[in-house]
Amino acid sequence: MSLHRRGFSSRRVLVAIAFSFALCILYYTHLRNTQSDPLPELIPEEDVVFWPTEPPEIWAERAVQVKNAFLHAYHGYERYAFPHDELTPLSNASTNSFNKWGVTAVDSLDTMLLMGLKDEYERALPMIMNTNFSLPANTAVPFFETVIRYLGGLLSAYALSNDTRLLTKADELGAKLLPAFNTESGFPVYAVNTYEGVESGPPVGMLAEIASWQLEYSYLGKITGKEEYAERATLITDLFYNANLTFSGGMYPTKWDLTSGEPYDLHLSVGAAADSAHEYTLKQYLLTAQTDKENLEMYIRMTTHVINNLMFISPQRHLVYVTDMSTYKLEDTRVTHHFEHLSCFFPGLLALGVKMLPLDDLESVGINVEELTRDLLPRDRGGYEALSEFNLTDLHLWAAEAIAQTCYITYADQPTGLGPETVSMRAGGKFGITRWMSAVRAWDRQGRRGPPPGVGDKLPWSEPPGLVSTKERDRATVTRDYGVRNIAYYLRPETVESFYMLWRVTGDVRWRYRGWHVFQAIEREAKTSSGYACVDRVHMKVPVLLDSMPSYFLAETLKYLYLLFLDEDIVPLDRWVFNTEAHPLPVFAWTPEESVAYGITEEHLPSAVS
Ligand SMILES: *[C@@H]1O[C@H](CO)[C@@H](O)[C@H](O)[C@H]1NC(C)=O
Ligand SMILES: *[C@@H]1O[C@H](CO)[C@@H](O)[C@H](O)[C@H]1NC(C)=O
Ligand SMILES: *[C@@H]1O[C@H](CO)[C@@H](O)[C@H](O)[C@H]1NC(C)=O
Ligand SMILES: *[C@@H]1O[C@H](CO)[C@@H](O)[C@H](O)[C@H]1NC(C)=O
Ligand SMILES: *[C@@H]1O[C@H](CO)[C@@H](O)[C@H](O)[C@H]1NC(C)=O
Questions:
Q1: Based on the domain organization, do 326 and 383 belong to the same domain?
Q2: Could you tell me if residue 5 is inside a domain?
């Protein structure tokens, strides 16, 4: 503070004492419950600018390179695997892990349309039209994967082409999967036997699997006019909205009882088994032309809880990450400090919210913070007060930029340039890990010097790889701030997905450069003579290739890279919503008649809940 620079006067001292006293009262009444961490002494960050300045024309050529990568992967699939599910890119053979309906072809359709690949599209279509969704008989298909890859793929290709044959096929598949909803709660069960029309699976559902289909079924309901599709999403939104989330800070926990429709555990995460359920709260609101306020409320609750409780910053390099935690008893909360590649979608979601929502004026869209916090424990209500010191638009964008940078750094640090599946952050003890919000508050109180905590540009770790002794490895873990926990890169999209969103939302060309580095690493390390392979041992100079090319590599990873480098904005974020498999669906509004027919009425809006 600048107090002593101005010299002393007794009046100023009195004012200062009164001010400190007021601050203490404020601290003890408002912040004590949420913030037990002491505010850290921050070393201001610097922006290490090390990006080249290249003429903007280079990006068009890079988009072409991604298109060629797609063609290489798809032609390998066509030659050695079609009409089976996926190519095995080392042995030139195929696997059938996703219903044997040609998942790579269906998942790739909309990418082909966006890239203008008519020939590949025409070659794929007849097989897709002839697929019998009742085959293979007597085998259960997984509801969630089938919805996001097949149904999402068909719907998106329909939306981009207007080819009604795709709509007919989507309708056929959507109907075949409906038995999944035959549970007491109405949450879908794990699998459906589409031949016999019966559901199967455990009585407890994983969050991501029970809550990542609303976009697909709502849009299917809109374009077919069928109530049985559209009303499901309304029903599920009500279930979540009315669930007792008192002990999870208003955030959905990871396991749910499919009979009672209530939470089954208190594990909170935006990573594996949870991720897309959180994604679909905001996206369902956006897809339905921003009318579904229940989902918007739940998005605000979730992000508030994550920002306050699941985001941390590492001590050496100020790497910000989002992790997961379990509450065993009210006083026994355990944070894992694992950071998953899967969680790297989260910064992109935050960025989308920053672009589309009036986060600094939520009242204008009918969000009342009192309503939002009504059933929460005092410590969680305190979290909302803590955030209210900041402009939420700024805060969400800083969070997005900081986490996405960490996602990038986990790639750039490795000799392969590819990011590991999971890293384990240095937690607690003498290393002094801190909640991100504590660091942000300290940065604010200490005069906002430098970029917000974690937002500053960072150089990759420069020590040579190939460490042998445990001692060396421990030292490396400390200076890098993390250890690599699962050393494989499964050609996943989440990191480049967030780069794309941040590029569109901020216009900062550094996101393109980061994506370009990732693409070059994929070309260098993962390319085989017939496609692209998952890479094991990304932390070694000589990695090992795995005989697998997941369909999402074509549906998502290459699509987001292509859109990142393409100058034209061919899928504007205010007109299209990407499902969790990167299939864009067009924003639509329900007519008043549809709203009544599908139960989307005023009484579902939060303002009417007494
Ligand atoms: C796979 O196919 C590619 C290209 O067609 C070929 O160059 C390569 O030798 C094949 N690999 C195997 C293991 O057959
Ligand atoms: C699809 O396969 C099932 C199971 O073998 C069969 O009963 C049905 O007739 C087939 N449908 C069509 C349109 O071929
Ligand atoms: C599909 O139809 C919509 C609405 O009529 C139109 O705006 C769009 O341009 C059409 N797209 C194609 C690829 O024909
Ligand atoms: C939520 O569940 C807890 C634990 O069972 C219970 O104590 C609390 O009263 C419930 N809250 C509401 C609003 O039903
Ligand atoms: C919040 O921040 C955004 C972006 O920096 C700015 O445009 C907006 O005016 C701010 N809102 C308020 C209420 O200060």
A1: yes
A2: yes
Residue 13 is encoded by which pair of tokens? 């001292």
pLDDT in tens, 560-596: 999 999 999 999 999 999 999 999 999 999 999 999 8
- On whether residue 114 sits in a domain, the answer given is yes
- Residue 27: domain span: 1-33
Cα gap 14→68, rounded to integer Å: 71
| Identity at 389, one-letter amino acid code | E
Q: 92 CA distance to ligand 1 centroid (A)?
A: 6
Same-domain status, 39 and 132: yes
Q: What is the pLDDT of residues 382-404, one digit of tens each?
A: 889 888 999 999 999 999 999 99
Neighbours of 221 (CB within 10 A): 23
Reported as a single tens digit per residue, the pLDDT across 203-234 is 999 999 999 999 999 999 999 999 999 999 99
One domain, residues 39 and 27: no
- The secondary element (H helix, E strand) that includes residue 198 is strand 198-200
Structural domain tally of the chain?
A: 2
User: 506 CA distance to ligand 5 centroid (A)?
Assistant: 14
Residue 609 resides in a domain:
no
Among the bound ligands, name the one nearest to the CA of residue 375: 4
Helices 392-412, 436-445: axis angle to 10 degrees equals 120
Confidence bin at 606 (pLDDT 50/70/90) = very low
22 and 167, same structural domain? no
Q: What is the CATH number of the domain that holds 479?
A: 1.50.10.10
580 in a labelled binding site: yes
Using one digit for the tens of pLDDT, what is the confidence trace for 315-372? Answer: 888 999 999 999 877 778 899 999 999 999 999 999 999 999 999 999 999 998 888 8
Residue 610 falls inside a structural domain: no
Per-residue confidence (pLDDT) for residue 434, from 0 to 100: 87
407 CA from centroid of ligand 4 (Å): 37
Among protein residues, the one whose CA lies closest to atom 2 of ligand 3: 162
Atom of ligand 4 nearest to the CA of 244: 1
Q: Give residue-wise pLDDT tens across range 36-81.
A: 455 566 667 776 656 888 999 999 999 999 999 999 999 999 999 9
Residue 136: its pLDDT value, please?
A: 86
**Closest-lying ligand 5 atom to the alpha carbon of residue 361:** 13
3-state secondary structure of 21: helix
Residue 393 alpha carbon to ligand 5 centre in Å: 6
Q: Which atom of ligand 2 is nearest to the CA of 195?
A: 4
57 shares its domain with 23: no
Interatomic CA distance for residues 353 and 298, integer angstroms: 13
Q: How far apart are CA 259 and CA 237, in angstroms?
A: 16
Q: Does residue 134 have its Cβ closer than 6 Å to ligand 2?
A: yes
Q: Whose CA is nearest to atom 2 of ligand 1?
A: 530
Tell whether 99 and 24 lie within a shared domain. no
Smallest CA separation from ligand 1 atom 13, residue: 91
Does residue 22 carry a pLDDT above 60? no
Q: What percent of the chain has pLDDT over 90?
A: 75
**Catalytic positions, written as ranges:** 145, 275, 421, 494
3-state secondary structure of 225: coil
* 92 close to ligand 1 (CB < 6 Angstrom): yes
Quick one: 28 and 107 in the same domain?
Answer: no
pLDDT at 408: 97
Tally the C-alpha atoms within 13 A of residue 458's C-alpha that lie toward its C-beta.
Answer: 29
Structure tokens at 198: 């019966």
On whether both 17 and 105 belong to a single domain, the answer is no
List, in order, residues 6 or more apart from 515 with CB less than 8 Å away.
Answer: 496, 499, 500, 503, 560, 561, 564, 565
Return the amino acid letter for 583.
H
Residue with the smallest CA separation from ligand 2 atom 10 is 132
